[in-house]
């Protein structure tokens, strides 16, 4: 037990960087404040979003109350929580169990492998509790207050809160361990990791879409009947949900009405969680340690003949190209980076297309969409532009460009590459990724709206131009606060405040700019709107470029 | 070739200086050894020379160029191999070398010839198409050495170069260092392996707790110590 506690503390400390933080407090005040400020600002910035989230729950509860269906309220919250835990959990589990290097140091030590597994799991669980507290506890409180629940409800809901993340995380961990085991045999771990993560997400998405569609159809087919049913029978919707996520029933039975049976259901819920946990430990002991001990297999390239070597070296590239191709290779070849920085531009258009394909549009619907476009092309254009810029901001490619290099960043800092080449090379990578998203989106949109050439040209050019200030702002942030001291690439992007800051500032800025130029274009003259948008974007781009160009060389001197 | 003038560096707001007001010069055509115990400030000094760290005060002139005033030009004068070369794991050896050749603008014919030569010398030809992540520590170091040698720098800066290398490679490296200096260029390297310093350096500086305590040829330092002792003993006495 003591060992588990100690290990868990170690892992948590490692993934959150507490030691470094405390060290900086006494030894490096500047670095300390650099860490502290975002720790205060980011939560504050998130308050409005949290407030909206809670209001959504209150509205949902009020709505359900009106149709006398409050019994599904907790189930909805539960399913949402579980879905989010699974989506984010995949990367946390992969990174804690498979990308973190500490395991190689721990295995030779006389520590029970079971304890390592449990501790790693607990360290993830702790973060998930923080997460669950934010997203699930509001639902518990709203329901409790709304239904006028008492002390027993409070106790039981604390118990349920503690069990909620365990089951999905445990099962997910076991599943990942099994897949990683079979993946490593083939010796192409990295690629499989990406595919696996994608499949996981795709699965969840399709279940949700299917689920939504299923419910939606029922609505269409016999809305009246369903409504009647709902009003008469308080349990039918609950059972429908329970059919998809069976454990949601346990939760509902425990907390919806406090009876003596609640205790029994709570106990069985705890039991199921313990079983899942034990299963995970068992799978881990059987497969996880083994796949680590076997060693990481890196696929080797084929031997190069002299002629091939000469050929590989036979072209001289410009400094911009050198930086660009190095940055792009790192991005595409590191699974975590690929997942975090690139996958958005594939997943979002794909999901959009899939969900749209479930909505059956009649020819009249198509016509009205087209008419809307021909009557008000400026609105459609600006929506597309906003969408393209969204890719630029969310991929956070520039906001992590130095951070991603980590301890190897000495190389790109030591070489004689001008700031100009650095900026253009690194920003180009982001633009390429963004362009990928633009192409996918345009393909998707063309199914519904036949865009004119003018629209295509305008949206692509303004979309990229408009994202440049955000991309450069990301670069500016990463230049000022690079996160280099990591042993696990997950940290370079996930623990990186630059990503959050860039996203928030970028979205606020672009929202404002789009609103102003959209209104101007709509009410006065479209070209005035496009013009204003271009001019402001152009100016901001030049300003940021100049600032970075001036400071970069000196900043690179002070990275550590 | 390399001139440090009253250079100091403190990390964060620690009380003691990692490097404390040091000055010395490396002349063209010489191998200069930077000797000192662990934690003396060798790596810190080297990082300031190669523009990875800004000094708090003082000046560093490389081949006549101030490395704080004209950073880009100064960077073109040297190449550097760190003590523990962390390289991009996902990049292949050959891609790394091409990157270095591009960055230092080495003409195609020259890069082909030099890379071929040094890959053979350090015996890592076979691995050059593998991702660097599959390299051993020594192989990474060898790759970094090849990458540093392809642009034939005026000043060659190495941090603890002999530590991870096998005997053959470290023999070859010493030979390369000597040839480099014979062409009027300079080598600056740090070491705590005194044997090496004693055998191959034209001059050395001894650093202790961030301060330079001796600079000169072996003979000069011996003379000061007033004995025929090996550097080892002098070193132990000086750094006591
Ligand atoms: N990044 C750092 N942060 C704080 N102190 C450091 C850092 N790097 C080195 N030091 C301190 O500076 C001193 C000199 O270290 P270093 O130059 O690495 O020595 P050497 O290379 O001679 O062994 C040591 O006391 C060390 O603890
Ligand atoms: Mg050192």
From TrEMBL, chain A:
Membrane-traversing stretches: 36-60, 72-94, 121-145, 151-179, 191-211, 263-284, 336-359, 379-402, 423-449, 455-476, 497-524, 530-548
InterPro entries (UniProt xref): ABC_tran_2, Protein_kinase_ATP_BS
Sequence positions that bind ATP: 555
One Pfam short name: ABC_tran_2
Alphabetical UniProt keywords: ATP-binding, Membrane, Nucleotide-binding, Transmembrane, Transmembrane helix
Protein known as: ABC transporter permease
Species per Swiss-Prot/TrEMBL record: Acetobacterium tundrae
Lineage: Bacteria, Bacillati, Bacillota, Clostridia, Eubacteriales
Automatic annotation (TrEMBL), chain B:
Xref: Pfam families: ABC_tran
Entry-linked PROSITE patterns: ABC_TRANSPORTER_1, ABC_TRANSPORTER_2
Record-linked SUPFAM superfamilies: P-loop containing nucleoside triphosphate hydrolases (SSF52540)
Segments forming domain ABC transporter: 2-234
A GO MF label: ATP binding
Keyword entries, A-Z: ATP-binding, Nucleotide-binding, Transport
Highest taxon listed in the record's lineage: Bacteria
Transmembrane segments: none
Protein name (database record): ATP-binding cassette domain-containing protein
Species assigned in the record: Acetobacterium tundrae
């Amino acid at each position: 037990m003591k060992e588990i506690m100690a290990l868990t503390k170690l892992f948590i400390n490692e993934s959150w960087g507490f030691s470094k933080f405390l060290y900086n407090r006494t030894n490096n005040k500047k670095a300390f404040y650099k860490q502290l400020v975002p720790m205060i600002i980011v939560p504050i910035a998130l308050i409005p979003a949290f407030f909206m989230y809670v209001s959504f729950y209150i509205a949902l509860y009020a709505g359900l109350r009106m149709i006398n269906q409050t019994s599904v309220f907790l189930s909805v919250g539960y399913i949402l929580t579980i879905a989010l835990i699974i989506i984010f959990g995949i990367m946390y589990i992969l990174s804690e169990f498979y990308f973190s290097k500490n395991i190689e140091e721990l295995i030779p030590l006389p520590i029970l492998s079971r304890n390592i597994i449990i501790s790693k799991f607990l360290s993830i669980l702790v973060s998930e509790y923080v997460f669950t507290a934010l997203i699930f506890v509001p639902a518990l409180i709203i329901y409790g207050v709304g239904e006028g629940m008492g002390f027993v409800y409070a106790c039981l809901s604390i118990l349920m809160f503690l069990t909620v993340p365990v089951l999905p995380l445990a099962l997910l961990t076991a599943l990942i361990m099994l897949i990683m085991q079979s993946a490593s045999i083939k010796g192409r771990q990295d690629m499989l990791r990406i595919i696996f993560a994608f499949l996981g997400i795709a699965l969840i998405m399709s279940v949700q879409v299917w689920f939504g569609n299923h419910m939606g159809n029922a609505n269409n087919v016999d809305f009246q009947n369903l409504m009647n049913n709902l009003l008469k029978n308080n349990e039918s919707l609950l059972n429908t949900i329970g059919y998809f996520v069976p454990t949601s029933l346990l939760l509902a039975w425990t907390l919806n009405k406090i009876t003596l049976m609640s205790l029994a259901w709570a106990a069985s819920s705890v039991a199921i969680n313990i079983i899942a946990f034990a299963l995970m430990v068992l799978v881990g002991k059987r497969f996880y340690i083994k796949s680590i001990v076997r060693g990481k297999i890196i696929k080797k390239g084929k031997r190069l003949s002299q002629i091939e070597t000469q050929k590989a070296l036979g072209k001289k590239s410009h400094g911009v190209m050198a930086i660009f191709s190095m940055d792009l290779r790192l991005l595409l070849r590191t699974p975590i980076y690929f997942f975090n920085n690139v996958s958005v531009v594939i997943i979002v258009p794909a999901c959009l297309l899939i969900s749209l394909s479930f909505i059956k549009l009649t020819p009249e619907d198509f016509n009205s969409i087209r008419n809307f476009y021909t009557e008000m092309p400026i609105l459609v254009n600006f929506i597309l532009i906003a969408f393209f810029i969204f890719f630029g901001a969310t991929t956070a490619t520039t906001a992590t460009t130095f951070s991603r290099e980590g301890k190897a960043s000495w190389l790109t800092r030591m070489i004689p590459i001008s700031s100009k080449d650095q900026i253009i090379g690194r920003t180009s990578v982001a633009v390429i990724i963004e362009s990928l998203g633009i192409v996918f989106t345009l393909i998707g949109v063309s199914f519904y709206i036949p865009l004119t050439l003018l629209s295509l040209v305008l949206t692509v050019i303004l979309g990229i131009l408009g994202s440049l200030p955000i991309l450069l702002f990301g670069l500016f942030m990463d230049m000022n606060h690079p996160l280099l001291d990591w042993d696990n690439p997950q940290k370079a992007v996930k623990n990186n405040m630059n990503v959050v800051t860039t996203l928030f500032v970028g979205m606020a800025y672009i929202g404002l700019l789009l609103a102003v130029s959209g209104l101007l274009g709509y009410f006065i003259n479209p070209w005035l709107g496009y013009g204003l948008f271009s001019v402001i974007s152009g100016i901001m781009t030049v300003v940021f470029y100049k600032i970075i160009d001036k400071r970069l060389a000196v900043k690179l001197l002070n990275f550590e | 070739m390399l001139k440090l003038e009253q250079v100091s560096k403190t990390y964060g707001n620690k009380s003691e200086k990692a490097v404390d007001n040091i000055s010395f010069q490396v002349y063209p055509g010489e191998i200069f050894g930077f000797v000192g115990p662990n934690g003396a400030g060798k790596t810190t000094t080297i990082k300031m020379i190669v523009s990875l760290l800004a000094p708090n005060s003082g000046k560093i002139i490389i081949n006549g160029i101030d490395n704080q005033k004209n950073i880009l030009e100064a960077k073109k004068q040297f190449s550097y191999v760190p003590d523990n070369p962390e390289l991009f794991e996902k990049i292949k050896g050959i891609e790394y070398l091409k990157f270095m050749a591009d960055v230092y603008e080495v003409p195609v014919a020259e890069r082909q010839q030099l890379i071929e030569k040094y890959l053979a010398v350090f015996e890592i030809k076979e691995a050059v198409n593998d991702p660097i992540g599959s390299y051993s520590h020594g192989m990474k170091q060898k790759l970094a050495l090849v990458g540093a040698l392809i642009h034939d720098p005026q000043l060659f800066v190495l941090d603890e170069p002999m530590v991870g290398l096998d005997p053959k490679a470290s023999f070859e490296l010493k030979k390369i260092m000597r040839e480099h200096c014979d062409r009027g260029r300079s080598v600056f390297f740090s070491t705590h392996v005194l044997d090496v310093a004693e055998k191959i350096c034209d001059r050395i500086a001894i650093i202790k707790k961030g301060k330079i305590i001796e600079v000169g040829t072996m003979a000069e330092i011996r003379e000061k110590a007033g004995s025929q002792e090996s550097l080892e003993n002098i070193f132990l006495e000086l750094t006591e």
